[in-house]
Design goal:
Immunoglobulin-like, 688 residues, mainly beta, rod-shaped, 39% strand
Length: 688
């Protein structure tokens, strides 16, 4: 076949020696002709014949006859293609790469290159290429596409692992690069080693001995105090999501773990005892060295350093009372690096211990009338001794008595009893007493209540207090004994009335007079009335007798004048009735009494029976005042009296009134006073 040049010169088409010829792009614009040389089977050749020229040849429609991928369908590989183009001179053919999801959705890949580098995004997906043939003159042919199988992931591997320099308590985030499909849960092991490892010692660290310590199994790691000064090694086994593992990758820090700057947190003060405190704080920043401690005193907002207080503990002094204290902590690292001082919050106001009472005790006996005094037993500790001597304030007391409430004893406050002492009263007998004591200090605080209790109160020993005799002082008055009984409930106490002669210690008992009242009579004139009171408790216990006396009993004033007048005359006569019965009856009948005249002077006395028309007056009794002469009166009959001259001569007589009887008795005794120890004249103020 011949191809003609543009200048008409024919040009042979090489290798075109068959009966048919497929036009190519090289033929476009040329004329084509074919030459034929016949050859016989014995190789004899005939004359060559040349056909007419055909042409010129024009370009065909652009077409992609075949399209195939080149390369491995594996992540990280480069995927290219080979396309067979026909249709004139090839122009800028169009290429479109697509990632086809499992659900059929296509995602265009931003690439116009004739190759595609497969990435992680392509793993598990398929790649589609749409190829559109374009002729040189811009005519496009029909697009042709091809789709790959699913892209397989590459084998897992760690491309890069870098552990930066580390510092205590700062999280380390290694820089790593993974390749090989989607990354799964890789294995990470952090090791601590004192020496920096190289070569096989580093790559085979998992087989190292005790000098290498595994300390963490996460990707990120925060170095601790134990890591300071050591090298950190990260051992990484890259692992694909399907669990397939790659070759381990190991990286070590360039320098040892650096300590953090010295710092202290949570600085505070802890109370150990009432007078001792401890400073606290959490040190951070490498190994702690000789950190500095200090204590401060806060006085109304002014903070002063306490000299000499440079340890973690502090013992309170009196200077700290009513102030707050603070603890200062200056962190110092073992290499002498110094951090910033941190101060605690001020404590509560420092005060000494609240006063305490070890025991409350009573002085005195739980007996009526005794005084119970509450006494505090103070702890013997030095601080309590100081508190009681310098800071004790008021002490409150409250007394209680028990109530009857079955087996359980309950108490009722005695609101008015708030002193340390309590005098046991009659009402307390049989009850228990309790005292509550609360001690206050000068700072306004109070101790826990302390209590002391008695057993049931016993009655006191019976006695009479303030015994006295009340009465007008005259012989006609009624006298009463007054006194306060003490000693439980009074029983049958004894009372005895007596007479006491002025100037004599002798006491004359008045028979039958044992009551609280006594009616005086003329026999008491010139004597002191004495009462002896013997207290007896209801259970029979007898107390000591107590006595009281009056001033000498005086004559009733009106009667006194009459007696004095008659004594001054020296001769006195009285008309009386004499009882002829030697045993007088209580009721005097007219048949037993006879009228008589009682005549007396300073020397003698006589009883005269008056004369009648038929007889002369007769003296029945006569005598002097020499003892045993005396006059007797009768308490059961205030008008009767008896004159006793001697053992053989005595006269019972009755007058019409007590007044007259008393006048007669006093006048007789007045005349007879020179023979008596009682000076009636002195009583009556008569000069002898």
């Amino acid at each position: 076949e011949l191809d003609g040049h543009s200048d008409g010169t024919p040009c042979e088409i090489k290798e075109a020696t068959t009966s048919s010829y497929l036009l190519s792009v090289d033929d476009i614009g040329f004329f084509i002709s074919v030459s034929y040389e016949p050859v016989r089977n014995d190789w004899a050749r005939g004359p060559m014949v040349v056909s007419e020229v055909v042409g010129p040849i024009v370009a065909g429609h652009p077409n992609c006859q075949s399209l195939e991928f080149l390369g491995s369908m594996i992540e990280g590989q480069r995927l290219s293609f080979v396309a067979s183009y026909t249709g004139g001179i090839k122009g800028n053919c169009s290429l479109e790469w697509f990632r086809v999801k499992r659900n059929g959705v296509k995602e265009k890949v931003l690439s116009n290159d004739e190759f595609l580098d497969l990435s992680l995004e392509d793993v598990g997906e398929s790649i589609e290429l749409i190829y559109t043939p374009v002729r040189e003159d811009g005519i496009e042919g029909s697009p042709r596409s091809i789709r790959s199988d699913n892209i397989a992931p590459a084998n897992p591997m760690g491309l890069e692992l870098l552990v930066p320099d580390c510092c205590e308590k700062q999280e380390v985030v290694p820089r790593k690069t993974y390749f090989g499909g989607h990354e799964g849960l890789g294995e990470y092991i952090w090791y601590r080693t004192k020496d920096k490892l190289h070569g096989s010692a580093l790559t085979e660290i998992s087989y190292a001995g005790e000098e290498v310590i595994a300390c963490c199994r996460t990707l990120n790691y925060t170095p601790s105090l134990d890591d300071v000064g050591a090298y950190l090694v990260l051992y990484w086994i890259p692992t694909r999501v399907d669990g397939r593992s790659g070759k381990p990758v190991v990286s070590i820090t360039n320098s040892p773990v650096a300590p953090a700057d010295p710092e202290v947190f949570n600085v505070g003060v802890k109370k150990l005892f009432s007078d001792a405190y401890s400073g606290e704080g959490e040190y951070f920043g490498g190994h702690e060295g000789a950190s500095l401690f200090s204590w401060y005193r806060d006085i109304d907002g002014t903070i002063d350093l306490i000299a000499g207080a440079n340890s973690k503990t502090y013992e309170v002094t009196e200077s700290d009372y009513n102030c707050s204290i603070l603890f200062g902590y200056t962190p110092v690292r073992s290499d002498s690096a110094v951090g910033e001082q941190k101060m605690s919050e001020p404590t509560d106001i420092i005060l000494p211990e609240v006063p305490k009472v070890d025991m409350l005790a009573f002085t005195g006996k739980a007996v009526q009338g005794d005084v119970l005094t509450a006494v505090q037993v103070i702890p013997k500790t030095e601080i309590q001794q100081l508190v009681w001597s310098k800071y004790k304030g008021a002490i409150e007391y409250q007394w209680f008595h028990s109530l009857e409430s079955g087996d359980k004893i309950s108490y009722e406050a005695l609101s008015s009893e708030t002193s340390c002492s309590y005098k046991v009263r009659f009402e307390d007998i049989g009850r228990c007493l309790k005292c509550e004591c609360i001690v206050h200090d000068v700072f306004g605080r109070s101790s826990e209540p302390a209590y002391a209790e008695t057993g049931p109160i016993s009655p006191g020993f019976p006695r009479i207090e303030k015994l006295e005799i009340e009465g007008g002082g005259f012989h006609t008055n009624l006298y009463a004994v007054r006194g306060n009984y003490f000693g439980g409930k009074e029983g049958k106490s004894k009372i005895q009335w007596l007479r006491s002669m002025v100037g004599s210690p002798d006491l004359i008992s008045i028979p039958g007079e044992t009551g609280r009242m006594y009616e005086a009579n003329v026999d008491d004139v010139g004597y002191r009335l004495v009462v002896v009171y013997t207290p007896i408790r209801e259970d029979g216990v007898e107390g000591h007798p107590v006595s009281a006396s009056t001033e000498p009993i005086a004559v009733e004033p009106d009667l006194y004048k009459e007696v004095k007048q008659k004594l001054e005359t020296g001769l006195v006569k009285f008309e009386v009735l004499c009882d002829k019965d030697p045993y007088p009856k209580k009721i005097v009948g007219e048949g037993n009494l006879e009228r008589r005249m009682l005549e007396m002077n300073r020397k003698r006395i006589k009883v005269v029976k008056p004369g009648t028309k038929t007889s002369f007056a007769t003296t029945e009794v006569r005598g002097s005042y020499v003892p045993p002469f005396h006059v007797e009166t009768f308490r059961n009959d205030q008008r009767r009296l008896r004159i006793v001259v001697d053992s053989e001569n005595e006269v019972d007589m009755v007058v019409h009134s007590r007044h007259l009887r008393d006048v007669i008795a006093l006048v007789i005794r007045g005349f007879a006073q020179r023979f008596n120890s009682t000076s009636l004249n002195s009583l009556l103020k008569i000069e002898t």
